[in-house]
Amino acid sequence: MLLSELRNNLTLLAQSHPDEVLQETEITNISFDTRTVTQGSLFVCIKGIRSDRHEYIQEAIEKGAVAIVSEYSIDTKDAINLVVENTNTALSYLSAAFYNNPQNKLRVVGVTGTNGKTTVTNLVKNMLEVCGYKVGLIGTNEIVIDKTSYPANATTPEAPELFSYLGKMAEENCDFAVMEVSSHSVSLGRVAAISFEIGVFTNLTQDHLDYHITMENYANAKAEFFRQCKTSVINADSPYAEIMKAQAADTVITYGINEACDYRASEIEARADGVSYTVLCDKDPFRINFPIPGGFSVYNSLAVCALSGALSIPDGFVRMALKKTKTVKGRCELVEIDKPYQVMIDFAHTPDGMENILSTVNEFKPARLITVFGCGGDRDKGKRPKMGAIAKKYSDLVVVTSDNPRSENMNAIIEDILAGISDLTNVYSEPDRKKAIGLAMSLAQEKDIILLLGKGHEMVQKFKDYEIEFDEREVVKSLCN
Question: Is 376 left (phi over 0), alpha (psi -120 to 50) or beta?
């Protein structure tokens, strides 16, 4: 694509070369990482969480970049320089244009919130497919285009990868793109070029404060997303609902259990094998049966009911899709083993997420609950003692271990967690996660439930300078031999 065509998608502060040069310059690739720069690349100097790509301009040029998008003018004769106010936002618009603006050929649904994003996006995908639509999915677990699955590296990919996948969806004639939208992706401008037909807000609880610093900043980052949504579907029971609604650009539809809302769950029945409830809305009430237990399952499935109203999807399709739901990988997932006890895996990695799953399991546990968990390194430290206290409150035995320690010392993270536990009776610590799981299995008795929290769908464990393969399902099975 010609650089002049891409330039038309930007509001420039400065341009180093005349238009004639841009009209003759072919761009073969858009990159923000020098490792992916090739001959003919346009290099965008984004400012990320831990690095500023302006520092790598010369390396990018040496590797073949013919044009540089930056936030200040650069002194070089070896590349064309385009100066913009915000390179993060520019990267989104450039990536969209490079892939022929696929977002405009799709009906895009975005789901944001601390917990529930993966489950809700999968539920929405299932519902739309029951209705006969062709759907693409972008999320934490995987990226799916019709029936083809690709590995996911982030909740919301960086803009070049994101629009590449949206481009594939458009080429495959998908009707909808359903995607998870993280607070990072909003504040860093990755989704700036997308106008969402529908945006869903699930909840907001403590997480990512290593980046956002305060809950107010975190909430505002989430709320910013709804400026880009034609219809906003918002959990009315969240303490942050009004902040989200205040930023909504157009139509707002609310759902919940306790507060006044457009879609309210009533006559809730909780069972070990799921939940059922009646949906009260502006049309005839209808009954939902959802085969995943827990109060959070009411909210997740109710969000889909509210979204279906925004899309004018008949209740029958919604009931059918939710009733046929299968557990999402790493969410309340039972591991099939030949033991007298059960092992369950869940991605819960926040205080609220942990309390949700632990309180749910306590409702139906036949014997003891053994919880194995850790906290991620280089991430919000404030939640560690809180999670320790919650684990102790709801569990009969607790094994504190590592999660993804990254550059932090595993034992130091464990000490932070243990600081929240006043009574260390029946609390064990083992930094090696495989050994910790083995310890829990050795302590388990008949009808106990072992709950492995934090890793969920993840297939690796991340350390400072390396990572190892770590699929908890396979780890558990190997320990059974």
Answer: beta
Q: What does the alpha-carbon distance between residue 219 and residue 129 come to, in Å, rounded to a whole number? A: 32
Question: Are β-strands 397-400 and 449-453 bridged in parallel, bridged antiparallel, or unpaired?
Answer: unpaired
Q: Are strands 342-346 and 333-335 parallel, antiparallel or unpaired?
A: antiparallel
Q: How far apart are CA 402 and CA 430, in angstroms?
A: 8
Using CA atoms, how far apart are residues 329 and 437, in angstroms rounded to an integer? 19
Closest by alpha carbon to 371, among 350, 391, 393? 391
Query: In whole angstroms, what is the distance from residue 1 CA to residue 9 CA?
Result: 13
Identify the H or E element spanning 301. helix 295-310
Cβ proximity of 414 and 401 under 8 Å: yes
Burial of 446 (0-12, 13-18, 19+ CB in 10 A): exposed
* For residue 228, pLDDT beyond 80: yes
Amino acid symbol at 298: V
Collapsing DSSP to helix, strand or coil, 305 comes out as helix
Residue 103, amino acid: Q
CA dihedral (276, 280, 282, 283) positive or negative: positive
Which residue in 251, 254, 248, 166 sits closest to 202, CA to CA? 254
Q: Using an 8 Å Cβ cutoff, are 30 and 94 in contact? A: yes
| Model confidence pLDDT, tens digit, residues 7-39 | 999 999 999 999 999 999 999 999 999 999 999
Domains of the chain and any CATH numbers: 3-98 (3.40.1390.10), 102-323 (3.40.1190.10), 333-480 (3.90.190.20)
> Residue 274: helix, strand or coil by DSSP?
strand
Q: Amino acid identity, residue 306?
A: A
The predicted model scores a pTM of 0.82
Q: Residue 371: beta bridge partners? A: 398, 451
- Which candidate, 410, 351, 408, places its Cα nearest to that of 378? 408
Start-end of H helices in 227-294:
241-247
